[in-house]
Amino acid sequence: MTTDGEMSEKIGTVYLVGAGPGDPGLITLRGYELLQSCDAVVYDDLAAYELVAATPPHVERYYVGKRAGKHSRLQNETSKMLVMLVKRGLNVVRLKGGDPLVFARGGEEATYLKQAGVPYEIIPGVTAMTAVAAGTGIPLTDRRESAWVLMATGHEATSASLPVPWEEIARLKGGTVAIYMGVGRLSVIVEKLIAGGADPDISAAVVVNAYTGAQRIVRANLHKLPEQCIEQKVESPALVIIGNVVDLMEKLSWMTAGTLAGKRILVTRPREEASEICRKLRFHGGEPIPLPTIEIIPEVNRSDWEQVERIFGEKSWIIFTSKSGVTHFFDGLFMRGYDIRALGEFKVAAIGPGTADRLMQFGLKADLMPEISTVAELASKMVKAGDLIGKSGIRVRGNLSDDILEKTMENAGARVCPLTVYRTRTADWEPHWLKVVKESPPDYITFTSGSTVEGFVSIIGKEAAVDIAANSTVVSIGPSTTEVAESFGIKVDVEAVEHTLDGLVEAMVKYVISTTQPA
Known about the structure:
alpha/beta; 5-stranded mixed beta sheet; about 525 residues; Methyltransferase, Cobalt-precorrin-4 Transmethylase, Domain 2; single chain; Rossmann fold
């Protein structure tokens, strides 16, 4: 890959990809595969954070979002950026909310690329209109109520935009009108429709944050809809649906608000481990903001492995104190030509249920696990478990792990071989991510290890981290993580009883219920 600004003999391709609205699961398989294999992603404001944050570490990321008239870049600048990136030899995903060719300026960008001689492909996406229909139970067409659908933009952004003939649309009967970007001018639009002959009492709805846990519906007769939106402080992103089909929502709606509905939740786990907790949070209606504060990369320490190999065949202990340690240990074991039979004589210790579950994925059951998931408690339990004099042990660890366990076991007479299998480092945040978190602190911040706390403080800065945390509800997976957070002056509001992802989410749900129920 060439460095920034250099041209390459090999030209790349631009993929105009529709991310869909709301739930990241609405992206097509083709779109997701391209995100995982591209060299750069240029993304909009409405593309789900999960999709961008889940791209591999080598992917260059560029934010070019637009919302409510605030543009990080002009459209022409974005198009020029795409050309510049492909001329460096990069394959670029241009990630757009919804569908690239439905009110997303995909046509303008494709025209620019065509004129520049740049190869491109267009990958469709679920557009906001169909997501609203699915998420609310408002069918766009129904042979009893609607024989046609009309899409229109409510946001005539520039003098170059074609006007929408609202008066002519008003004279059409027996169909459904879907208005994108119409909240800001809703009063004017409704006035024109009624002046053109639309029934002022026809059913209408505005759907905010469609197909997400934060989905909200404002429903009223057409002439009352603008007033209702003002009273309920409706903001974009929102889509307006007008037609008799809105009445069918009462019978067909299926999406219910979860306990965490509308809650923005910062997920600080490493990129490759964030999807699991995001799914769990979305199940309860939460809106995850997965911005990893740490990166975990494999570490191959030959001298450590050589010491470990000498112990194979002995009746020894092997101790795992993290899920990452389990994964990278087995990667290293298999790379060295061994399989699980090499551990046949070992007893296995795990720090907690999450680590034990990861071991079971490799067919290995933990023989020992403390009730409290801390290294100190694990070390104490191992000493109590039996005579360690003359015994060997392998401590699978990362580069930042402390040596409490090793010292405790050695004081009890054991010989411990530390095996470093991964390295933790602070992740890099996009300037846009930093701006979002600082200007609009999330409702909840989740920490699943002490290193995620340390990464958060390193990225944000200690003073800002404490301030942001004070304006959020901080949730910790267990006492070790809480201890690290509090050492920085970050107050932990909720600590999981069971030190697993399920336990953390359960603790959040119970906290929300306890703080929202009337006394």
